[in-house]
C-alpha cells in the first residue's frame, strides 16, 4: 500500500504540473476530463504496483520451490509430511523476517525513531543469519568439510 500511495502522489504531482502547463501555455481547453485524471493518478500506480507484486510473488514461489528441493536433499530420510512441515515453517519464517524488517524501516522517517532504526538493523541482520544457517550450516558440502 505504501508503494501505491507514493506512486499515486508522484502521478498526481505530474498531472498537476501538466495541468499548470496547459493553463499557462495553451490557455484554451485547459481542463482534463475527470476520468483521465483518475486513470493517470490512480490507474498508473495500480498497474505498476500490480506488476511489481506479481514479480515478487513469482520470485517468492521460485524461492519456496528451491527451499523444498534443498530440504529434500538435506534430509532424505524425512517423510513427505515432515518435509512439508519443515519447508512451510522455513518459508513463513523468512517471509516474516523480511516483511518485519521493512515494517520497521517505514517508521524511520520521524524524529526520535532510534528504536525503529535498531529494530530495522536487527531484523536485517537476522535475515542474513537465517540465510547463512540455511545455505551454509544445513548444506551437506559445508557440514562434511567441517567435521
Automatic annotation (TrEMBL):
InterPro entries: GPCR_2-like_7TM (IPR017981), GPCR_2_secretin-like (IPR000832). The chain crosses the membrane at residues 7-28, 34-65, 86-104, 116-138. It is found in: Membrane. PANTHER family: ADHESION G PROTEIN-COUPLED RECEPTOR E1-LIKE-RELATED (PTHR12011:SF433), ADHESION G-PROTEIN COUPLED RECEPTOR (PTHR12011). This is G-protein coupled receptors family 2 profile 2 domain-containing protein. It is a multi-pass membrane protein. Keywords: Membrane, Transmembrane, Transmembrane helix. Residues 1-56 form the G-protein coupled receptors family 2 profile domain. It comes from Goodea atripinnis.
Amino acid at each position: 500500500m505504501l508503494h501505491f500511495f507514493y506512486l499515486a502522489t508522484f502521478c498526481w504531482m505530474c498531472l498537476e504540473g501538466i495541468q499548470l502547463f496547459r493553463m499557462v501555455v495553451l490557455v484554451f481547453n485547459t481542463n482534463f476530463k475527470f476520468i483521465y485524471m483518475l486513470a493517470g493518478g490512480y490507474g498508473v500506480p495500480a498497474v505498476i504496483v500490480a506488476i511489481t507484486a506479481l514479480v515478487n510473488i513469482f520470485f517468492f514461489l521460485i524461492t519456496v520451490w528451491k527451499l523444498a528441493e534443498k530440504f529434500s536433499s538435506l534430509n532424505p530420510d524425512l517423510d513427505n509430511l515432515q518435509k512439508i512441515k519443515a519447508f512451510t515453517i522455513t518459508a513463513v519464517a523468512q517471509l516474516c523476517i523480511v516483511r518485519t524488517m521493512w515494517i520497521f524501516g517505514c517508521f524511520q522517517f520521524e524524529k526520535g525513531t532510534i528504536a525503529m532504526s535498531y529494530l530495522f538493523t536487527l531484523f536485517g541482520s537476522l535475515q542474513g543469519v537465517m540465510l547463512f544457517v540455511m545455505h551454509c550450516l544445513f548444506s551437506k558440502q559445508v557440514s562434511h568439510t567441517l567435521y
